[in-house]
Amino acid sequence: MTRTSPARMVLYVISALVLVYLILPVLIIAPISFSSARFLTFPPPSFSLRWYQQYFANPAWMQATRVTLTVAFFTVLIATPCGVAAAYAISQSKLRIIHMALLLPLVVPIIITAVGIFFVYAKVGLVATMPGLVLANVMLGLPYVVISVLAGLQSFDPAQEMVARSLGMNRLRSFFAVTLPQIKSSVVAGGIFAFISAMDETIVALFISGGQYQPLTKRMFTALRDEIDPTIAAISTLMTVASFMLVLLASTRGKRGG
């Protein structure tokens, strides 16, 4: 019978405390979303689905939901092929400067990025437009696709593509016939993370969205400022569940790809 060392026990305890710390907000918000009280109250005095019903029956919330899903969909549609092409170019050329430039949205503080995007959009007339929201989220989601696809390419043997090219295929055809099928799990995972990034983005949306083109995150922020009610908790719970399921799907795809 093996005994657990004290150091390992301390590691387990610290890991458990970190997990509880990360999950605690969800454990509080989820019950509040089912509260029958008029305001955010924890623990809820009784349970009800009224705030979920209010969310689905409210035209403003539904409009914001459509904007969010539309932006996320087009972000994936644009960022995924661009990220795959960029990752493939990086893996072939080994140009670290390109890699670093594509990862800048993850390094630069998001508030600085948001201010920069706003001033550029103000010059070209993209503030409070759907194309503006999509392009901004493509820029923010692109690094996730690049990182995921690069990880897939590192486990792929490039000699297989070279063999296909030696048999008469050009580079583009050999990529689609040989390389892409073997890294498709990484591509799918990158697209999923780009979708989640677009769905959850708040800071940039606060600067550049407006009018009928306001995503859920901005409308939630406005609702918190004007009037706090458990509808926001219901939306937060739904978004958390959706993000969790997407991350689980990306993780599953990644394991299958591995």
Helical/strand content category:
mainly alpha
Quote the average pLDDT: 83
Q: What's the total helix number?
A: 12
Low-confidence spans: pLDDT under 50, at least 5 residues?
none
Distance between the termini: 33 Å
Shape: globular
Question: H/E order of the elements?
Answer: HHHHHHHHHHHH
Cα-atom Rg, whole angstroms? 22 Å
Protein name: ABC transporter permease
Membrane topology: Multi-pass membrane protein
Keywords: Cell inner membrane, Cell membrane, Membrane, Transmembrane, Transmembrane helix, Transport
GO biological process, one term: transmembrane transport
How would you sum up this structure in a few lines?
With 258 residues, the protein is mainly α. It has twelve helices and no strands. The longest helix is centred in the N-terminal third of the chain and has 35 residues, at 59-93.
What can you see in these coordinates?
With 258 residues, the protein is mainly alpha-helical. Helix content is 79%, strand content 0%. It has twelve helices and no strands. Helix 7 packs across helix 9 (171-200). The protein is globular, with a radius of gyration of 22 Å. The protein starts with 5 loop residues before the first helix and ends with a helix. The model has no long low-confidence stretch (mean pLDDT 83). One of its GO terms (biological process) is transmembrane transport. Keywords: Cell inner membrane, Cell membrane, Membrane, Transmembrane, Transmembrane helix, Transport. Belongs to the binding-protein-dependent transport system permease family. It comes from Bradyrhizobium barranii subsp. apii. The chain crosses the membrane at residues 12-34, 67-90, 102-122, 134-153, 174-196, 231-250.
